[in-house]
Design a protein that fits this description.
With about 170 residues, the protein is α+β, with helices and mostly antiparallel strands. It folds into two domains: about 1-70, no CATH class; about 70-170, Winged helix-like DNA-binding domain superfamily/Winged helix DNA-binding domain (Arc Repressor Mutant, subunit A, Orthogonal Bundle). The chain is about 40% helix and about 20% strand. The protein has helices at about 25, 30-45, 85-90, 100-110, 120-130, 135-145, 160-170; strands at about 5-10, 15-20, 70-75, 80, 150-155, 155-160. The strands form three sheets. The protein has a two-stranded antiparallel ribbon. Strands 3-4 form a two-stranded antiparallel ribbon. The chain is elongated, with a radius of gyration of 23 Å. It starts with a strand and ends with a helix.
Length: about 170
Amino acid sequence: MEDNRVRIRLAWNNCEFELEGSQQYVDTYSETIKAFTDILKASGSGQAEKNTPSKGQQISIFEQSQPKKATVRTNSEGLEIPSSFGELYYKAPKSINKTDIVLLASYFIQSQNNENTFTTREVNKLLRDHGIDLTNTAHFNKLNQDYKKVFKMRQGQYKVSEEGVKHLTEILR
C-alpha cells in the first residue's frame, strides 16, 4: 500500500513552520498555511508592516483562520448525521444503554461507508477511539440483531435496519 505523505516546510528569519501527514490531514491546515504565506509575502514586499512582527515580537496565524464547521447530512428518515461520531454521541441522552451505543456507532459507520454496511471491528475501533471501552461489542451487536435493529448482509458485514434507524431517531430527539 502506497503512503501518500505530504510535507510542507516554510522558513522565515529564525521562524519555521513544518507540517507533514496525509493529504487530507495537511488540507485541514490550508487556511493556516495561506495566512502564513500571506505574512511572508507581505514582509518580503514591505507592504504590511503591522502584520509583520518586529524582532522579538510574536504573532499567531491560528487566530486569523476560522474553524471549519462540521457538516451535517440528513438521511431519508430525517436523522441528522454529523461528520464526526463525537458530535452524534453527544446528542444522545446520558442514560443511553450499551446496546444503543453500539447501534449508534454502527449507524454512523454505515452512513460513512459507500457500501452502507459496518463490521463489529470498525464499531469497536470507533468506540475505543472515543474512549468508550465496551468489553464485547459483538455481544451487543448480536442483541441488536435479536431486536431486529441490525441484520447480517454477508460474512462479517451488517446493516442497520429501518427499525434500528427509527429507534435511533427516537433516541436522538
